[in-house]
Amino acid sequence: MTTPPATGNGAAPAGNGSLPAWLPDEQTLTRMAGEFFRALPGQPPVPDGTPDPGLPANGTPADLPPPAPRSRPSTPSGPPPTSAPVTHGAAAAGHGLPFVPEIPTLMNLASQPGVPAAAPTAAPTAMPTPDPGGFYFLSGVPGYTPAMPATPGFGHAATASIPEAAAPAPAGAHFYFVDPERASEVPELPLDPHPAFDVHAVRRDFPILSERVNGRPLIWLDNAATTQKPNAVIERLVEFYSRENSNIHRAAHELAARATDAYENARRTVAKFIGAGSAEEIVFVRGTTEAINLVAKSWGAQHIGQGDEIVISHLEHHANIVPWQMLAEQTGAVLKVIPVDESGQVLLDRYTALLSDRTKLVAVAHVSNALGTVVPISEIIEIGHRAGAKVLIDAAQSVPHMPIDVAALGADFLAFSGHKIFGPTGIGVLYGREEVLADMPPWEGGGNMIADVTLERSIYQPPPGRFEAGTGNIADAVGLAAALDYVDRIGLSQIASYEHALLEYATAGLRDIPGLRLVGTAADKASVVSFVLEGYEPVEVGTALNEEGIAVRAGHHCAQPILRRYGLEATVRPSLAFYNTHDEVDTLVAAVRRLSTRTGRR
Length: 602
Ligand SMILES: Cc1ncc(COP(=O)(O)O)c(C=O)c1O
Hints:
Number of helices: 19
Helix content: 25-40%
Strand order of the largest sheet: 4-10-9-8-7-5-6
Structural class: alpha/beta
Largest sheet: 7 strands, mixed
Distance between the termini: 74 Å
Radius of gyration: 27 Å
Bound molecules: pyridoxal-5'-phosphate
């Protein structure tokens, strides 16, 4: 049998001898403690299918389905993992757990007079890994009202607390692998101020980087448009479609549980990656463009009216201009623009002067996709908030290149695209502060976003479900989480410092080429070196570089206003990622230099 039995409402088992009624039974406690100790560093791994040492011999009832297979995302090269790979062990943990319908009126039936209370839920008996995020039925899917209040002893929070209480750290032992008696014999190694970043090892994680184009090794310098995908992501997608694929949230079958777990765990991964307070603050969308349109159509329609002001910067991608123009047209609001200096940095004093008590929203890019300018968003947010405005950060070009902590920043909204951070296309994220999302109406109607529908009216889910009408991009959300885990394991600080050095190297190499003009020279830049070359249209440079296997973007980069600020319609835009090398930059510089000296130059 593969369908987990519907086992009722998740209420705690009846009191068990001397144990308080809210605690799980002794067998479950023993098993949890066993899992905890097994999870400690230095403990031998328990292979799939090995009986849980914390279980009695007969601990797994024969009629329960086998545990879901563990996912095995490929381990990236570079520093050791900083976070555990995503598994769908949580799905296995859910065997025998109750299915929760999404309609609140049904959810409360069990407490209605005349409705028999459901049988106590059996504690999960086959848990391959300690439950990292809980089974979605129990721990509360963001945006999906749980059927029953969380019961102590069940769900991930309680699971985590029990082993903690059961296994106090031995006093005085700081490192499990150091014998305190012989600690003085352990040699002290000097701290390496430049932690290893082995770009060649990292490159082996990206199969496409071994491609040849026009007989030359591919040099991918179009990362601002989209990034390449590591095996960890490719394999995760294969695994999802091979073993987990199902629609989510409403089905009492195994694959729906696996897919829902994977999707909701992906939401938790995103929340953790950007420092959000909770997974409820994460809305899955198609990408940055859709995220910004969502805010304009939902929050904007509710909060912006005639004469109100929306402030953007001159640097914006069209995705952060057009939705606000549309909103302004519909409402009679006014769009104001923060100017930039010659280097391409926003002028903070001019920004401050633009704000008024009519300013309702400030929406700016963290990193300009056309120039690479890193905008001081902490100041932008602080100044915007002081004026009483909400602040949206377009982080499409920053999330892949530098650590972001939305809670520390205090942004009201932040948007990014999965495909620019080594994840799949068609998936992206809108982060919204909990209070702000809670106050927003849905922007699209349909399935999934509702709690209850009659022919007369609909009741909506709370955020984030309210904003995810229809079947979402389930597999790619899971793929995005694999990408974020991958980046996390390498470390964004390492990535940022490696890329910074590479950007300086590329800038220095290109700057000296005769006839080359850099466009965007701000002191603080990331990833992008935009330029024009005298005698060539940007597209001609792009085509010539392609002949040498070098992929760069040439055009307006969907940021026409900022290019026109410099009297240009297009630039050549190499953009870097952490898998690019100094050798690749040398090849680029040499190719552009050859073009600059070619006699046929106009
Ligand atoms: C700064 C910025 N914002 C928004 C976008 C739009 O992203 P997407 O096309 O993934 O929605 C991009 C894409 O290049 C971008 O660079």
